[in-house]
Design goal:
homodimer; elongated; DNA-binding
Chain lengths: 139, 139
DNA sequence: ACAAAAAGATACAAAAATAGTATCATAATA
DNA sequence: TATTATGATACTATTTTTGTATCTTTTTGT
């Protein structure tokens, strides 16, 4: 049972890295070096994030990726939905079809409740909150 | 992302069925009929539950299965641990080895917190609580 | 003793999800 | 127009989940 797949994990780490660095854009190659993950896999993930609208990309020399919105605005659920969508703890599927017991399933209601809370908590985690290492005492 | 696999789902339904019926024991064949699931798969699940200590079994004519403890004492986590163990939202594994970032992973702490709460909630769900259809007003 | 009815053990197989590779096309820019 | 970057897409490998198949053992009634 994994809440977070490697796709999502890599994506989050890449987003953090992109958010943290000073240059305008950062290339896939440079990300591979700092993140130590398979280049083709990361490239695919970056492409997916771009298509999903979380990243800008520019081609050619000095091209690369940058965030489209601030790190505060990117939640963990945003990323999870891209790679693992939809977020359901409860699938209630039976060979592509709805489970025949879905209407009177006694487990479903209980799991649904837990699911709501999990999603709320995941939504509270943003790229910004992941990056922030310590609470700033001056704030 | 599934919190509960079919193994666990079938097992829970079987346990409910065993808990609810009046006879001392119930055979795999009778369970198959009332639960409508593949016989060999259910048999394997029943065997696993027996090995795990949740069921008693008796062979031969009029043999079958019964609970070893009361439905109140069987939690959802008990069953999940048998079929999906261990319950972790966060695996932090990288090709069988610990993820190299495990010590300073900023996501881990946050997910671990969520995990604790999820597990606590799953622990509160028992076979008895699943069976109980309505709150008894006389209580 | 022995046949029938049950569970036990175990090995195998199919399907789905996850993880990753490889290759060629396209665009920007010096 | 060569180089350096991403875009698109098809393919492959691995792991997990979901089953199936087959044979053995035990119990019980006759």
């Amino acid at each position: 049972m994994k809440l977070i797949t490697r796709n999502t994990d890599y994506a989050v780490r890449a987003l953090c890295c992109i958010a943290e660095q000073k240059q305008e854009v950062i290339s896939a190659d440079r990300l591979v070096k700092s993140l130590d993950m398979p280049r083709p896999f990361l490239r695919k993930i970056l492409q997916t994030l771009t298509k999903a609208g979380l990243l800008n990309s520019s081609k050619g020399k000095d091209g690369g990726f940058s965030l489209t919105v601030s790190p505060e605005e990117i939640t963990l659920t945003d990323v999870m939905e891209i790679f693992q969508a939809p977020i359901r703890l409860n699938e209630c599927k039976f060979k592509k079809n709805d489970c025949p017991y879905i209407s009177d399933c006694l487990l479903k209601g209980k799991i649904d409740e837990i699911e709501k809370e999990v999603i709320a908590k995941l939504k509270a985690i943003t790229i910004a909150s992941i990056i922030k290492k310590e609470v700033n005492v001056d704030d």
